[in-house]
Write a structure and sequence with these properties.
The complex is a heterodimer of chains A (110) and B (112). With 110 residues, chain A is an all-beta fold. Chain A has strands spanning 5-7, 10-14, 19-24, 31-37, 44-49, 55-58, 61-65, 71-76, 85-92, 98-100, 104-109. In chain A, strand 7 (61-65) and strand 8 (71-76) form a beta hairpin. By secondary structure, chain B is mainly β. Chain B has strands spanning 4-6, 10-13, 19-25, 31-37, 43-51, 54-57, 64-70, 73-78, 87-94, 102-103, 107-111. In chain B, the strands form 2 sheets. In chain B, strands 2, 4, 5, 6, 9, 10 and 11 form a 7-stranded mixed sheet that branches. In chain B, strands 1-3-8-7 form a 4-stranded antiparallel sheet, with no helix packed on it. Chain B starts with a strand and ends with a strand. Classes of the chains: A mainly beta (110), B mainly beta (112).
Chain lengths: 110, 112
Amino acid sequence: TQLLEQSPQFLSIQEGENLTVYCNSSSVFSSLQWYRQEPGEGPVLLVTVVTGGEVKKLKRLTFQFGDARKDSSLHITAAQPGDTGLYLCAGHNAGNMLTFGGGTRLMVKP
Amino acid sequence: DVKVTQSSRYLVKRTGEKVFLECVQDMDHENMFWYRQDPGLGLRLIYFSYDVKMKEKGDIPEGYSVSREKKERFSLILESASTNQTSMYLCASSLGRDSEAFFGQGTRLTVV
């Protein structure tokens, strides 16, 4: 099993604050993905990072893949209540299997 | 749009019953997955299929089996349901390696 550990598990912040969520593993992944899940729905893809050191931006969200392709981070600038949700990182291994981390539950208070 | 459809949103079954959870995708995806989601544990992979009649065990296959007779359909079977299998079950499909996984809306199963 290739484990993905996310931190923190829970995060409660005020609107306008910045935050970073981490996804770490001892294994190398061919790619890492970040998903967001809202209550009663399945996860929805935010981004896929493939190249070591890659940085991708999606409006106020910045995603980074570690140089060794073992870890990733998600940084949110000026968080808004609409960012509230469960953020999940996921990694593909060589055999196409997709493994998820434990998730970070974010709450942004107005 | 890709659509992944799970047969039931909510299901209540008795201990010892055989339970079938059905999942259908309409985008000719090669890969299909079954996960269970429990509070604080994220999504844990039960089984994975990369082709018709092909399957691989995930992290927690005990107590479950799967069937993929057609490319678009992936079934999860609980041979004899137990209370510790009460959970949210999510099905997903993807085109290939490093591709986006598309999820169904989930089946909340309660075993009493």
